[in-house]
Amino acid sequence: MITLTSLFSRGDKTATDEAYYTAGQMALIKARFKRKMSGRIAGWILISIVSMGFFAPFFAPIDPTVRGADAEYRRGAPQAFFWWDEQGFSLRPFSYTYTKAGTKLNFKALAGGNLDALDAMIASGALSSSNQNKYQIDREKRRYIEFFVKGWEYSLLDFSMGGLDLDIRWDRHLFGVKQGQIHLMGTDEDGKDVFSRTLHAIWITISIAIVALIVKLFSSLLVGGVSGYCGGRVDAVLMSITEAVRVIPSIPVYLACAVALAELDLTSVQRYFAIAVIIGVLDFATLGRRLRTHILTERNQDYILAAELSGASSWRVIWVHLIPSFSSYIIVDTLINFPYVILAETSLSFLGLGLTEPVNSLGVLLQKAQDPDIQQNMVWQFFPVLVFVVLVMAFVFVGDALRDAADPYAEDKS
Question: Quick check: bond before 358 cis, omega within 30?
Fold first, then answer.
């Protein structure tokens, strides 16, 4: 018996089928990606981290450079904020006043050669690194957290290029305290805020990955497109170069390039772009071969023949007709390779061959974390390590979800 409900359900199913079979490739990828809960959660985490990195000066309460270093709170532990304590509950979050515990030394007795005073100083631990990290917390003095506080001026958005001078500057920050500074993740040996440095390091590392992937993408499109479309000797020569690049281990090449860069008098910005270009150029081979295979298959299709008969040049056929037919895979492959490029930059900086102090990058901060003094006495400087792991894992989960969504044979429409 056919009911009204069954007719409506059949109509909905028919409309869904029509929408599925008439949808474009990007729409299908988007629909499949939404069904991946792990990819969606990782995507929101990734967007949050990248946004905090891009607007790091706004989210960071303290200038991450030497100008913002707190000389009175060097090697300081993280300063938490609370809503209640023994004094009662507060609607506004607050922190406490931290003062460094001074070491009582009898310099007069030491100058007089009194060995008992020397023994007392050694026994008190005044010379040990762990005792230099001790601070007294005055729980009677609350420091209330304020939002959109006025602080150091920074460039919010800089569109200056050529003769155009359009630098939007601001001096407001998301949070802070009225008097002094608050260090959510403590400070390093110079008094620089670890939390602020980490936020700035996120964008530096991601921007290097973006530049490297752009270089890689254009190199892959050029080599793969020309090789696949032309074929013959051009294909043989280009693929020979590609195979040679693939079989050479990347680390020795990075080491050689780092040594060559060390011989040049480069600024931090120039070294930054040089590292990004090196990483991108050396990582084009895999995507270039895949593009070449796709174009070899597609170049004999009817629409390519029609474009050639219409008088389109070889470059127009490659860039306007062949490469767009492979655009979804290119986008997915680029996102999947994001964490590997980040790992490459971080590895170089970790080994001391990439960016160095005082530049803020995750690799530089990870390199500092291997110091035995930090591992024993300043474990809060492992905060950048945690952020790095979360960032890479978020990219991995998003990349896996996109790869499955871009595969039309991974699952059916149901």
Answer: yes
Are 320 and 312 in contact by the 8 Å Cβ rule? The answer is: yes
CB 64 within 8 A of CB 195: no
Strands 88-100 and 82-85: antiparallel
Angle, alpha carbons 115-119-120 (nearest 5°): 115
For 332, residues 6+ apart whose C-beta sits below 8 A from its C-beta are 29, 399, 402, 403, 405, 406
246 is written with which tokens? 């693939």
Element at 90 (helix H, strand E): strand 88-100
Tokens representing 373 are 């003094």
Q: What is the pLDDT of residues 219-254, one digit of tens each?
A: 888 888 888 888 888 888 888 888 888 887 777 777
Q: For residues 359 and 276, what is the distance between their CA atoms, to the nearest angstrom?
A: 15
Where are the alpha helices (H) located in 55-156, listed in sequence order? 56-59, 107-111, 115-123, 129-132
Phi, psi of 187 (to 5 degrees): -130, 165
Tokens of 355: 């960016």
Residue length of the chain? 414
State how far the Cα of 366 lies from the Cα of 254, in Å rounded to an integer. Answer: 18
To the question of domain 200-406 being in CATH 1.10.3720.10, the answer is yes
Question: Closest by alpha carbon to 341, among 187, 159, 215?
Answer: 215
Question: What values do phi and psi take at 273, rounded to 5?
Answer: -70, -35
Torsion sign across C-alpha atoms 218, 223, 226, 227: negative
Residue ranges per structural domain of the chain: 79-182, 200-406
In tens, the pLDDT along 304-329 reads 888 888 888 888 887 787 777 777 67
Sign of CA dihedral 54, 57, 62, 66: positive
